[in-house]
Amino acid sequence: MTDTLDEVRIGGLGASRKRAEDARFIRGRGTYVDDVVLPGMLHMEILRSPLAHARIVSIDTSAAWAVPGVRLVLTGEMAARRNLAWMPTLSYDTQAVLATDKVRFQGQEVACVVADDPYIARDAVEAIVVEYEALPPVVNPKQAMEPGAPVIRDDKEGQTDNLTYRWDVGDAAATERAFAEADTVSTLSLHYPRSHPSPLEPCGSIADFDVATGKLTIYMTSQAPHIIRSAVALVAELPEHMIRVISPDLGGGFGNKVPVYPGYVCSILCSILTGKPVKWVEDRSGNLTSTGFGRDMYLDGELALRRDGKILGVRMHVTTDQGAFFADAQPSKFKVGLLHSAFACYDVPVGHISAHGAYTNKAPGGVAYRCSFRVTEAMYFQERMIQAAADDLGMDQAEFRRINLLPDDAFPARTPFGFLVDSGQYGKCLQLGLDAIGYQDFVAEQAAARERGRLLGIGISTMTEPLGAGNSREYDILGIKMFDSAELRVHPTGKAMLRTGARSQGQGHETTWAQIVAHELGLPADDVVVEEGDTDTAPYGMGTYASRSTPVAGAAVSMVSRKIRAKARKLAAHLLEVSEEDVEWELGRFHVRGAPGRGVTIQECAAAAYTNMPDGMEPGLEGNAYYDPPNLTWPFACYIATVEIDPETGVWDVLRFVAVDDCGVRINPMIVEGQIMGGLTEAYAMASMQFQTYDGDGNVVGANFMDYLLPTAWETPGFELHEVVTPCPHHPIGAKGVGECATVGGPAAFANAVLNAIRHTGVRNIDMPLLPDRVWEALRTGQDYSGTPPVKGD
């Protein structure tokens, strides 16, 4: 007999293996776009509009050209001569690269300067004189759709209003019947405010067009380098095989680095015109005012209810603020992302969702900010509606959820909007969370505290998120199906290199992908090097966003490893001089059936692939896999927060926060816990402090980190983490994904807790962020507080 490998010891599934990438990051040895220096490189700065809506009367660039060291001053008119003043968006709209007719949001790109160093470029940008004719700005979609509102996209032929799209899903007639039969109807109107992903590293690119070869190399802060390459080929009219996109280390992405931005296109055009590499790295204000936002959605929601608490139907109408251009990064056929994943964890018979979007004088929004395409809004609306319905019925909020959550024997379950939810233990997760927080004891304490003037609250959020978009029957971006890929090469010494079409920006791919290979082949994870982000070497993939890593790219890693194992089995049969049918596998080793002591290791098979292969077998031990998921994966979570509010100031403090996550099989528990804690921190920020809004003139309130607040370790509460494991039935290793769940489900737990603390006042809603002054005003007036822009003046 031989000893079987210990999977955890070699760094396979379940090992809390330290992140391989941290060895360079904690030493300051990461390579970001701004670290790349090319011979003869020039620097680009962008002139941005100070106004939200204005016609361009003239642009005088003469003073900029006169600055010593300036190599190029580019305007929209010059770009238009090369058919590059406008570009397509990922939502089949058009977006200005450099404004030609008018500016449509504060911070829009108007011109750019290329110079010998960034300081000269900045000085020259400030020398450009632009004469504007101010136009009335529109800062929310309800204003935009009013009769007589100024038409923002008057560049589009036939566009006579500010409507972006209309979309609906569900059975309207059946839903109407359910509401007619209801004992009561609970209604709620909400605004999920505009949020900015705020990655540690802003966006940037270095374009290097080689005049001699005609090849364009772009170093870029991109979560989806292959999609960017295809888009650049369309925009710049260059052959795709002559474009190389390299996405080096990314300082966070969160969806912000999926779209194509005007700065990327400008750097490419400037490199072509100058014949030199051109670097552009935006500053923080540029990132906050002009790059992709998330959220900014309005809800009018209704639940049809029986007296006993059973939900009979749901009806939702949403309005999205798209900004000046419809530039959402989302699957083509879903105009409002996967918003219709709402109520997927509840047993709701029928539902109908209608949606429309509007252009406004704001930067284009709608990126999948740490969520699977608008699912954050879906889950927030869902859980706020659930809380309000429980209050309207006079029911305990936990019991109301328990009555309506899908039971374990209901799977697979079809949602009222057509999704198939395949597995889960929702009731178990809820009960584990309630027990951990001491729910009944807290409710009793809450009642006693109120008698003494203390305001305690408890909020629950039970949610499921569809991850891994998605199967080729339904999901594409720009017509490209949303598969993903992996290529694995095992060298003669048994060491391996793995390349995938995904792109990590903090998820730990270099660590976890190697762990999947270790699980499938028995190679120690330390013997597997992972590379991503270079379109010249990586297989074509859709990139990393919307929690696609483990559900799709991770599955591709598993499948390519199994292809390698299948060939290795043939090599083992040759080495052991038996038929392939007589070879059995255990982790890291093949042996003869019935004779476990007679075997060969995977490393020995790798050597044979190059030195002793059977006749007729192709040498080498490598392969690739493209994974088209059969369904989305459906992780579930229960988040519970307890808070106390100071009635004199409206300040609220988090007392405890319990998180129960079921993300299926966990590859690396330590990384999973880190993802959950980071996601909950972002959820807390959205609920309590992040404030990206606009005044009546369209000026951005939140263009710097003095106004757009990010929580530090000082403000962030502690989190208590628990787990339930329900393997995904169709994923190769049973994993579901977890990177976004806490950001998606967490905000409602905080908001519900605050509203629960003051429900005796009659206040049903305070829009996020629940700033102390909003809470205080709601307490003082007994009225709901709307956070709809423009912000109130002094």
From TrEMBL:
Residues 27-136 form the Aldehyde oxidase/xanthine dehydrogenase a/b hammerhead domain. Keywords: Molybdenum, Oxidoreductase. The keyword Oxidoreductase applies. InterPro entries: Ald_Oxase/Xan_DH_a/b, Ald_Oxase/Xan_DH_a/b_sf, Ald_Oxase/xanthine_DH-like, AldOxase/xan_DH_MoCoBD1, AldOxase/xan_DH_MoCoBD2, AldOxase/xan_DH_Mopterin-bd_sf, CO_Mo_DH_lsu. This is Aerobic carbon-monoxide dehydrogenase large subunit.
